[in-house]
Amino acid sequence: MILWILSFLVLALLLLFIDYRKLAALKKLVLPFFIVLCLSCLILTIILIYAHLRYKNEIIQSTKSSLISLTVEARKGIERILQETMDAAESIADDVTSGKLKDDEILDRLKTTAEQNKNFYGINIAYKPYAYSPDRKLYSPYFGKKGGVLTFSQLDKIYDYTKPEYEWYTLAMEKGPRWCEPYFGEAGLTLISTYSALFYETDTAAQRKDPIGVVTIDISLDQIGKIIRSLDLGPSGFGALLSQKGRYLYHPNNEYVLSGKTILELGEELNDADRL
């Protein structure tokens, strides 16, 4: 490309300084040659620019396609974990509602469920006040994994889960089954997200079912992070995951997750046009 441009400049200079009155015969040959050469250089330059832009666009499209495929596969892995979590919690809640799962069988069911699924970080059942027993205000047995070891605790002895800040219980009881926004679990001492399924007591007289508690399953966001970190996004690429409200569920900079700020809040704070 550079050689063609230099040749064009040299020939252009020669064209300026040739005395065509003395070289009339040469003029008939040189001038058409110069014109053809200039046109050839121009055409070749256009072709090369077009080829370069086309190649660049093909690389960009190929890279985008590859990244989209990686994202889809990662999404499938994450969705599989989430669906397994929802199915397991709903199954236990349904069995408690129907009476298929008796009070003395609940702890074994919770423990077995936690042991059989490596993605479950914790599992518990939490009754509304005095629903478990007239003599006991709150009851919430919890199995959680610490360092890969399953441990047992009573959440009702750690904190009052009926307070508004514990959305895994309060929002579910108020608005139905749901995933809660990520939070730092006091029992598991890690950043988690929880799915809450309701179980009910049937009021035959009123012909309705009243929620009397929730079955919850926690997933550690570290497990989600492993899926995202496994993606090959190149030397300068990284993966991140957002909740429905725009909060980071995973980011290589864990401070963004722990801050609880949304991507828009961080974008405004950092004056980051990409985030905005």
Topology of this protein?
Blueprint: H1 2-17, H2 24-98, H3 106-116, E1 122-127, E2 141-146, E3 149-154, H4 155-158, H5 167-175, E4 178-179, E5 183-184, E6 191-203, E7 208-220, H6 221-229, E8 241-242, E9 248-250, H7 254-259, H8 263-270
Antiparallel strand pairs: 1-2, 1-7, 2-3, 4-6, 5-6, 6-7, 8-9
Helix pairs in contact: 1-2
Q: What attributes does this structure have?
A:
276 residues; alpha+beta; Beta-Lactamase; seven-stranded antiparallel beta sheet; two-stranded antiparallel sheet; 8 helices; 9 strands; 19% strand; elongated
Task: Describe the structure in your own words.
There is one protein chain. This protein is an alpha+beta fold and 276 residues long. It has a domain of 157 residues: PAS domain (Beta-Lactamase). It starts with a helix and ends in a 6-residue tail after the last helix. The mean pLDDT is 83.
Structural class: alpha+beta
Approximate shape:
elongated
Under the CATH scheme, which class of the domain at 68-224?
Answer: Alpha Beta
Q: What's the pLDDT, averaged over the residues?
A: 83
Oligomer kind: single chain
Rg of Cα set: 34 Å
Low-confidence stretches at least 5 residues in length (pLDDT < 50)?
A: none
N/C terminus separation: 41 Å
- The CATH architecture name of the domain at 68-224 reads 2-Layer Sandwich
Largest sheet: 7 strands, antiparallel
Tell me what portion of residues adopts beta-strand conformation: 15-25%
The CATH superfamily of the domain at 68-224 is known as PAS domain
Q: So how many helices?
A: 8
* Helical coverage, percent range: 40-55%
Classify the fold: give the CATH topology of the domain at 68-224: Beta-Lactamase
User: How many strand elements?
Assistant: 9
How do the helices and strands follow one another from N- to C-terminus? HHHEEEHHEEEEHEEHH
